[in-house]
Protein: Dipeptidyl peptidase 2
Organism: Electrophorus electricus
Amino acid sequence: ATFTIIVPLLLLLLLLSCLRSAFTIDPEPQFIEKYFPQVLDHFNYNSLGNGTFAQHFFVSLDQYWRKNYGPIFFYTGNEGDIWDFALNTGFLTELAAVQGALVIFAEHRFYGKSLPFGQESFNIPQIGLLTVEQALADYAVMVTELKKELGAQKCPVIVFGGSYGGMLSVYMRIRYPNIVAGALAASAPILSTAGMGDTRQFFWDVTADYENYNPACKDTVREAFQKLQTLAEQEDYTHIQSAFSLCKTPSSPKDIHQLNGFLRNAFTLLAMLDYPYSTTFITALPAFPVKVVCDTLLNGTDVLSALRDAVGIVYNATGEQTCYNLYSLYVECADPTGCGLGLNSLAWDYQACTEIEMCFESNNVTDMFPPMPFTQRMREDYCAKRWAVVPRPGWLRTQYWGDALLTASNIIFSNGDLDPWANGGIRKSLSPSLIAINIPEGAHHLDLRASNTADPSSVVKARQREAELIAQWVKTSREKMF
Amino acid sequence: ATFTIIVPLLLLLLLLSCLRSAFTIDPEPQFIEKYFPQVLDHFNYNSLGNGTFAQHFFVSLDQYWRKNYGPIFFYTGNEGDIWDFALNTGFLTELAAVQGALVIFAEHRFYGKSLPFGQESFNIPQIGLLTVEQALADYAVMVTELKKELGAQKCPVIVFGGSYGGMLSVYMRIRYPNIVAGALAASAPILSTAGMGDTRQFFWDVTADYENYNPACKDTVREAFQKLQTLAEQEDYTHIQSAFSLCKTPSSPKDIHQLNGFLRNAFTLLAMLDYPYSTTFITALPAFPVKVVCDTLLNGTDVLSALRDAVGIVYNATGEQTCYNLYSLYVECADPTGCGLGLNSLAWDYQACTEIEMCFESNNVTDMFPPMPFTQRMREDYCAKRWAVVPRPGWLRTQYWGDALLTASNIIFSNGDLDPWANGGIRKSLSPSLIAINIPEGAHHLDLRASNTADPSSVVKARQREAELIAQWVKTSREKMF
């Protein structure tokens, strides 16, 4: 009697389970959190790094992968906690669902939970193990080992990354084509961070975003900065404090410099993250934040308080700040595009002091900001004091080819025209397999984000093209191993 | 009156000088010795290597170079004093004369005069800065800087190397195609040193050289080793001492093991350096040394003293040794193909303990030598004790692509069939621009040596083909920068 009940019950359960897997596509990726025992120092066998550390990663093992056949989509983690990137790179899992791929999000050493020496990771000399080369070797070793463990030796690997992560994806393909069949590099400023191009370009393009929305917006920003400058010259610090709701009265040109950096940084961030819907990447932002900030500026009664309210979109999204503490909300560092908010500023500052060159200036001529130069000399002085290092201009260009990329293949360089990083990257296709995709309405790596009903058609088309190219690379890679 | 004498005299001198440069081709390259201020540690900005060292190199500035136009022929120095390689790589200067090239011979860090920490270079942890990656970065940085200094920015660079130097040439092209337009890799065992292939291959092929000259030669060697083994088992050490003219009576299996290594090493070296004319590379050798050693072996009265006389070709070329000191003439290390003669054994031992995998065995079945295994486990034990390092098998294959080379281009893999290293390299063309050239009568990188009347036609033809391909790469590289 028990038997007659149990058997139909089991069959029903199996049927339900089968139906569920056949008809349900989970919109949220299901990741397993893991740690990989990673070589501490790939480039010195007798260093303090003679051992391993636990490298944090996420893997979507059974969700979409056609086991031992489907490709591996590998996100080359950049300067932050890898989970933040996983949450903001929905395109990867959407594509994995369609192409039967395994997804791995790997965390960059010295960020998130992948701190090789725990809290001492940011000490000297421990921090010395933070380099682009070590990060790439981490990913190469990790992929090679995981493929063995998973029985996935024959599964082509495609790398994905945004911003610095996109640079890492490019580097993975040119450095390890034995391991990586192709790369989607979204908003990867591989030229400007290698010291190539115009040092005025970045803030010029930030300015263009505001000007393009409304030329009066740019004029108002410039006027506000000019007014601040006049007050500073008059040493009217009380006025400045009240106008900007500062917690402490500024008392020196240094404080004014900090205030200028704090303000400029808000505009930079909003230009980068000018998405057509509200987001929570780095910080909580409304849809079309450039529009929002310009409307705030243009509707203000006086330009200084309007400027304060405008940057509040970045620094006071929750409305909880009653005053601004300049030195905690913004940290000046070797990256003039911002080190202070959300991202792990210590590690990124170190990278900007060593391999990644970002001597970008604002000058109030080609941009709307106060003149804030950042020369190689200033970088050298700062980095020597802060990290006891001497930057090596030209190294990144030597090491990762600069624009001499013609021997490479299977790389997509996608860029959004709204993104101030875009013109520091590859904007024109270099060959039939080095393809630039430009997204007129796109901000910083919009194409990597999950589909959204507010998406402009240009990003929808870009993602379609990317999907086609990736499918093609996977196919070709299967036919003849790379 | 003075005037009428001086003017004709000056004209005569100018005419003579002009005639000299028009009709004299100097057969010996004229090099300028220089030092380059090289970055000590390319991969860590906070290491003990925060500075520079003087990297030794030679440059043939004005001899053949069509200034600011002709290509740069760059020899990627390997495990030894760079001057030795310059003296034994005459093909480079011959080719430079024809193709109007600048020649640079760059010394590998930790060899020759390029010791980053002087006599302390071989201490731990200083030795940790000796890696393939550092050496490649040295060459990349050096070429980039020298091109600027010489006003040679538009001159295509071709890299050349033999043996490990050939491996470095391959790696330079795949790693830095932005800098290097093509590579001639002569006798570069890129597979066997990356842990790929049969660990018996090397001594099998050494044996084949002797067998191919005369099967009786191989049999005599095996017989002699067998006789030695019998005497060792009988602990008849006095007999062994006298038969092999050893300075010290052996007294343990360890000494016998050392004797076996000492003997095997001579055969290895002669097989590698089996050139058709007398040479002084590594050691002074007669023409066709394999023939010479076999004739010695086959004409001896008893096999033991014949074996002693045979290895005397290597160890006693000058006839000055009255007895053999086993432990000074041969040093056992992590490279079973020999560490002890001529080359800088300390640094090479370290490289064999870290990145370069050479777990080659002799076994007396597939070869004529006594069984002398060298497993990864034995390598690990030795390297931990000697250098406090843990080898990382698989690293070289991950880092430099193993046989997954299809995305590369413009590489010649030349190999001589007499060379026991040959079958550890690329023997078949992989694509129209990854070209294998096999030289039936060639020993270890014979093609890199200067032309010689004793050259077999196969090497003459190989050099012609190499010259054509290199000229083609230079031309193409000029048309579109890489």
User: Anything to note?
Assistant: The first strand of chain B starts at residue 32 and ends at 39. Chain B touches chain A through 47 residues (CB under 8 Å). Chain B has 16 helices and eight strands.
